[in-house]
């Protein structure tokens, strides 16, 4: 596939960029460049409320325009999903948020829009725009191994949400009419009439439902922009997702797996998320977001997308790319046990921060500015400030800001948006002010720290003796923490070197556990796979069998609110922990989880249908003839009853209970594990992608073991029409470590995957 015209071929001879952006001396070859293990950012692009490019974003960061507002009429009718009563069933108490309303596409996407060939799905469109923008002027070579790594969730697409609602309404309306004894011809007429109304109401969801699934969003965003051979992986660690996509890109470059990596994230607002998040009482009541301020009262989410382009520094210098900044190190962690899986955990955040500085020569005292995750929730902001207060100590002031007061919380894109803010600050030698800020909460005890929250722009000039350094934090729902250190590029100063191994080596599978419908335990699974036992059922059915209290010590009310994928993961992890014994207990701090999962969970799909019931009824009633109103009301009542039987009313456990990223996070939380955890989506190849991601953390030395899995628990009417094949349910977990670690710990090597000579890897040690 051809790249955009703005992408240039890599020159054979280039000039070296200096700190001031000039070009003074020839670059060294990649093999000779004294760049250590630094990673260069050579491109950036974005689509945000009030800004369709980095320059406009910078002006907004300085000026602080008002971007919060009510739901645009062309997105959805907020009245169907809103109630001022926070306890109202399946309603949100907040109608305001931050939307992309005046999108100004880059020339490539503008031409596609004019030609009618641009993607319809919003996050695909915004990602494509950001990707094209970020590649402007970046040198690519024909043989480059390229990857596109995107922080994303199936819960962040209005098109997918509406598409699932449409698909389920068709299926359930037909079933309702069959149960009512309506003959085939009349049933077909009535379903077609209602379907026409709903297809017009939810026009974004009409068409190819599969094209709205996460992996297809990534593939369609990069089609014709990156090579067809480019790896595409969607990464889900909730609000830290795009930081983890950057970390995976860094590791791919340092392990020699890729030459150029595009990393970022995207998120689009839709009604269900607001409804479910309001049951956590986490949405702002005032209709604005005031991070780090004593009057903060909650978060509001926002549309957004961003992409950065990464290369090894030697390669960027050789190509003559404009180097926007250098990525020094990333620290990751899971919170482990805590008050609740959605409760902020300062100790877990501190682990990620400390790990970031442990892997680089950069120390906390070098940091000038922290772009905090700070979402404007009182408990979350306090927990984060406490972790920064303890970790970032220096004699000079350290500025702390959050861009969510300006553009809202862009969810799975939030991390990359903050990275772009840092890169702009480096370019303009300035730290923007904190908007909507008057004074910090007294609990911050800010007077006793070196941390400062600026109310006006702060000069950030180039220093002769050292590079300017900033840090970006991202703390995801479910306890997925990340801290990224970003430095300016200085050709006149020595480059750093990461302390990790970053050496590819073979991996060993040392244990496994599985759960399938109708099979009792791993022994029956093994018998089926050997062809000696019965095959599993396709689905667990409408009601998933809750694990016993002896296996999962959680209140039944909480268990019933969890998607079956989270329950399966807890169940299978129990058996795997028993198999690993002492190793699990002794290495809890360095055991991570990577789960392959495609699309939305079952609970996410069912909650979409449940939350839209009033909107469906309003649309159908408006289009119903007077003589058919009684019959229509009967059908709507039956549809409501059928839908509500499938999933419980929304509570504080519903939002975390449906999220794909919380599948592995739930295991980390329950078993008090502190390695990273993430969900990856590569469609039907998601389990293979999970192994690919896990390899990067194991070969960098960050994990001693990765619990790698593949899972599906969603065969509902909402997603069944998306694929031309039956959908089955089940989970398989694998315990994966390096062969070297397996030998040292006396763990059984059941199979070898990854780099190196597999035969040599499994030979007994001398």
TrEMBL record:
It comes from the Bacteria. InterPro entries: Ketoacyl_synth_C, Ketoacyl_synth_N, PKS_Beta-ketoAc_synthase_dom, PKS_NRPS_Biosynth_Enz, Thiolase-like. Residues 1-38 are annotated as: Disordered. Residues 1-11 have a biased composition (Low complexity). SUPFAM superfamilies: Thiolase-like. GO terms for molecular function: fatty acid synthase activity. The lineage of its organism: Bacteria, Pseudomonadati, Pseudomonadota, Betaproteobacteria, Burkholderiales. Residues 36-488 form the Ketosynthase family 3 (KS3) domain. Residues 12-21 have a biased composition (Polar residues). It comes from Burkholderia territorii. This is Beta keto-acyl synthase. One of its GO terms (biological process) is fatty acid biosynthetic process. Keywords: Phosphopantetheine, Phosphoprotein.
